[in-house]
Design brief:
Blueprint lengths: L1 H7 L7 H4 L24 E5 L3 H9 L7 H25 L2 E5 L6 H13 L25 H8 L12 E4 L7 H12 L5 E4 L3 E3 L5 E2 L2 E2 L4 E2 L11 E2 L2 E2 L4 E2 L8 H9 L18 H7 L1 H11 L1
Parallel strand pairs: 1-2, 3-4
Antiparallel strand pairs: 5-6, 5-9, 7-8, 10-11
Helix pairs in contact: 3-4, 7-10
The structure holds zinc ion.
Keywords: Organic radical
Protein name: Glycine radical domain-containing protein
InterPro entries: Form_AcTrfase_GR_CS, Gly_radical, NrdD
Length: 296
């Protein structure tokens, strides 16, 4: 409710486009109370969470993904959070939701605070980061289909926001593999990020995944890590970020460095390889097929 009270301190003149000119779907006079636009389900206050993987790891060990009892525990945690938001809504008249928060920095902070208190706990605080929301442990490589099946039950309990993502190698010559995952995801999840290697070195011409270093990323061919002559793009959390130009907190960097691909293949873009769906599907259908089979 602190957040709600803080928002209510605003007056329409603070943001006329939002409050006075109708961007919130209702026009207020400059002397009106902005609370009219927040109450009765017109706005959402979110309860965020992070680290369901670590919660179950604490009780069932670090490889619990196939354990129904462990999975039920993580779903029960989310149901408990959802129940709390429903109660707050009934009590206050404001709409609360459970949010699978991006945790850009919290991934580092929560883990660091727990490490100070509990020491280095295997698969929990020893990684220097906490796993985002309900995500599959980033260090493991289930197929994209297994990952989506595993994660699919969670967003229904966390409607305030979420993302699934899959890490791919270069799939320029095998777009059918991408399409197979997207087709599979379409009926199962609400929001899917696709991460493919697109880092670029302007010093030597390399395109693909840069290698993680202690603090950032460097070209695997020539070692270049100068943000003026390279372009590094990683999915920070929900959005894409450029960690060379804008470094991340330690824990987030460790988390990205720990991510593995969910399909086999090269992380270097071969400039000589054909690109595009027509090329790949037409010239080498068996390669496309094997990629899909490897995933399924
Ligand atoms: Zn280079």
């Amino acid at each position: 409710m602190f957040r709600v009270e803080r928002c209510k301190e605003a007056v329409p003149a603070n943001a006329p486009i939002l409050y006075v000119h109708g961007a919130f779907g209702q026009r207020l006079a400059v002397e009106d109370d902005v609370d009219d636009l927040f109450r009765n389900g017109r706005a959402t206050v979110s309860l965020g969470y992070i680290g369901l993987y670590e919660v179950a790891a604490a009780f069932f060990g670090g490889a619990w993904e196939g354990n129904d009892e462990a999975k039920d525990l993580t779903l029960a945690v989310l149901r408990r959070l959802q129940g709390a938001t429903a109660a707050w809504k009934a009590e206050s008249g404001y709409h609360f939701s459970v949010y699978s928060t991006p945790s850009e920095s919290l991934t580092d902070r929560f883990c660091r605070l727990d490490r100070e208190r509990f020491g280095a706990v295997t698969d929990i605080t020893d990684k220097d980061y906490y796993t985002n929301s309900f995500h599959y442990d980033v260090r493991k490589n289930p197929t994209p289909f297994e990952k989506l099946d595993f994660e699919a039950p969670y967003p229904a309990l966390a409607s305030g926001g979420f993302i699934h993502y899959v890490e791919y190698p270069v799939l320029r010559t095998n777009p059918a593999a991408l399409e197979a995952v997207w087709d599979y995801a379409y009926d199962r999840v609400g929001y899917l990020g696709t991460n493919t290697p697109i880092d670029r070195c302007y010093a030597c011409g390399y395109t693909g995944d840069f290698d993680p270093t202690a603090r950032g990323f460097a070209c695997p061919e020539c070692g270049n890590d100068d943000p003026r002559t390279c372009d590094v793009v990683k999915r920070t959390c929900g959005y894409l970020g450029n960690p060379q130009a804008r470094p991340m907190v330690h824990g987030r960097h460790e988390e990205i460095a720990a991510r593995v691909k969910h399909l086999p293949g090269s992380v270097r873009v071969d400039p000589a390889a054909p690109t595009g769906a027509a090329d790949a599907a037409g010239s080498n259908p068996s390669a496309s097929g094997s990629g899909v089979a490897a995933g399924g």
